[in-house]
Amino acid sequence: MRKKETGLNTRMVQFKLTDPEPLLYHNEPVIRDGKIVGYLSSGNYGHHLGAAVGLGYVPCCG
Asked: Domain 2-59 sits in which CATH superfamily?
């Protein structure tokens, strides 16, 4: 209820690396415009996608 009243300040997004070699784990930094804006909550290799994928929280843009 509190989130509904105050609004969201972060959003969970999906990430897929363009380079197939590196792997993603949890707690990797999410960087936007040279600044750390969040961290991954989980990550692993997506065999079907052929690349590393992750989930992380970033600030919502108004």
From this structure: Aminomethyltransferase beta-barrel domains (2.40.30.110)
